[in-house]
Amino acid sequence: MGQKINPLGFRLGTTQSHRSFWFAQTKNYSVGLQEDEKIRNCIKNYVQKNRRISSGFEGIARIGIQKRIDLIQVIIHIGFPNLLIEGQTRGIEELQMNVQKELHSVNRRLNIAITRIEKPYGQPNILAEYIALQLKNRVSFRKSMKKAIELTEQTDTKGIQVQIAGRIDGKEIARVEWIREGRVPLQTIRAKIDHCSYTIRTIYGVLGIKIWIFVNEFGYL
C-alpha cells in the first residue's frame, strides 16, 4: 500500500497532537498559518547564526506554538543545549525581539521557553539533520543511514525506517534508497509514529530525507 498520507496527520486525535494550538475564523485561517511559518523560520535562522558550535546542526526537535488573544507562547524542544541559548536570559530576550519584529504585532506579547529532550536521537528531525550533515561532508549514504539507526537503538524506539531520494552519490538517474530496522506499522492508527521530511542541497542537487520512528503501540480503549 502506498505511503501517500502523512503519518502525523493520519493519527491526529489518537496518538498524535497538533504542533500549534489556536482558533481562527475561516477568513483568517491562512493568516494564522503564515504567522506560524514566520515564527518557526525566524527561530531556525537565529539559531543558525548564533549557535555556539560552528556546524550545520540546529538540534531542534520541534517548535510548539500556543496562541491566545493577547499572548503567543512558543516552546522550543531541543536535544543539545550547547547548540542553543539555553540558560542565557539575554539570548532568549534577543530571540523574542527578533520574532516580535518579524510578526509586526503590537497587541500581543510573545513568550519563548526552551525545553530539553533527554534522548535527542529518538527524534526524527534531529536524525535527519545528522544524516544531512554527513551527506554534505560526502560520507557514504549507506554508512550515514546505518549510523543513524545505531544512534536510534540507544533509545526506547521499537523500529525505524530511513529513506533517501534523489541523485544519490551524483548518479545521473535519481533513485530511492531505504533501510529499516525493527517494526514500522505505518497503517496501524494506534501505533505512535514520529515522522519528518527533510530537504538537503548538495553539489549534486537536492536530496530528500524521510524518517519514520515507531515509538510505541497503544492498546484498544
Structural features, described:
By secondary structure, the chain is an alpha/beta fold. It folds into two domains: 16-114, K homology (KH) domain (GMP Synthetase, Chain A, domain 3, 2-Layer Sandwich), CATH 3.30.300; 118-215, Ribosomal protein S3, C-terminal domain (Ribosomal protein S3 C-terminal domain, 2-Layer Sandwich), CATH 3.30.1140.32. Helix content is 30%, strand content 30%. The protein has five helices and eight strands, in the order H-E-H-E-E-H-E-H-H-E-E-E-E. The protein has helices at 7-10, 29-50, 89-103, 124-136, 141-152; strands at 20-21, 60-67, 71-78, 109-116, 159-166, 175-182, 191-202, 205-217. Strands 1-2-3-4 form a four-stranded mixed β-sheet. The chain has a four-stranded antiparallel β-sheet with strand order 6-5-8-7, covered by helices on one side. Strand 1 (20-21), helix 2 and strand 2 form a beta-alpha-beta unit. It is globular, with a radius of gyration of 19 Å.
Largest sheet: 4 strands, mixed
Q: What letter string, H or E per element, gives the SSE order?
A: HEHEEHEHHEEEE
Looking at the structure, the CATH topology of the largest domain is: GMP Synthetase, Chain A, domain 3
Uncertain ranges: none
Number of strands: 8
Q: Radius of gyration over alpha carbons?
A: 19 Å
**Overall average pLDDT:** 85
Count the DSSP helices: 5
The strands making up the biggest β-sheet line up spatially as 1-2-3-4
Indicate the percent of residues in helices. Answer: 25-40%
Measured distance between first and last alpha carbons: 26 Å
Q: What is the CATH class of the largest domain?
A: Alpha Beta
